[in-house]
Amino acid sequence: MLKKTSKTAMVILALIITFSCKTVQQANLKEIKPFVGIWNDTTNPGCKIVFKADGSFYNLAKENGIQIVTHSGIFKILSSNMYVLTISDARANATYDLKGRQYANYYTLGADQKTMKVSGYVDGRNGGNGLKWASDLVKMNTLD
Fold first, then answer.
1. How far apart are CA 35 and CA 33, in angstroms?
2. 34 and 113 in contact (C-beta within 8 Å)?
3. Contact 72, 58 (CB under 8 A)
4. For residue range 76-128, what is the model confidence (pLDDT) as tens digits?
């Protein structure tokens, strides 16, 4: 009887643990959810950043009336005010050293989670001067 009760208790405990624990992906989605979407960079007209639910991102700039991807990669929220970009691809003629680099940036989300202030630093290319930058972002519904 004790053996049967013990097995039943183990099965119930296993089920409770299985259904109460979040997967890493679920936890990460909750963490990044405020970031996910299309953000218009009001500090740099014509520029946008898209953060996707899978943890990827890409930056867009408008050149000659056409939106082009300037750099892309993955992002991760480190804390309530810091995130990191791991840039896997960037324009070959970029002024700043982006491709293959990882940059920690700061953010402050607006109370409505429709505005965000971001800032950071990127290294210059080939020994050039780096750039300390800051941008104001506004969440949009489309890339238009």
1. 5
2. yes
3. yes
4. 999 999 999 999 999 988 888 899 999 999 999 999 999 999 999 999 988 88
CATH class belonging to 24-140: mainly beta
Angle made by CA atoms 101, 66, 62, in degrees to the nearest 5: 50
Contact 74, 63 (CB under 8 A): no
Burial category of 122 from C-beta neighbours within 10 Å (exposed 0-12, middle 13-18, buried 19 and up): buried
From the list 95, 98, 87, the residue with the least C-alpha distance to 129 is 95
pTM surpassing 0.90?
A: no
Q: Which residues, including other chains, have CB under 8 Å from residue 101's CB and lie 6 or more apart?
A: 86, 87, 122, 123
Residue 72 backbone class (left: φ over 0; alpha: ψ -120 to 50; beta: rest) = beta
Q: Mind spelling out the 3-state secondary structure of 15-43?
A: HHHHHHCCCHHHHHHHHHCCCCEEEEECC
Give the distance, in angstroms, between the CA of residue 107 and the centroid of all CA atoms in the same chain: 11
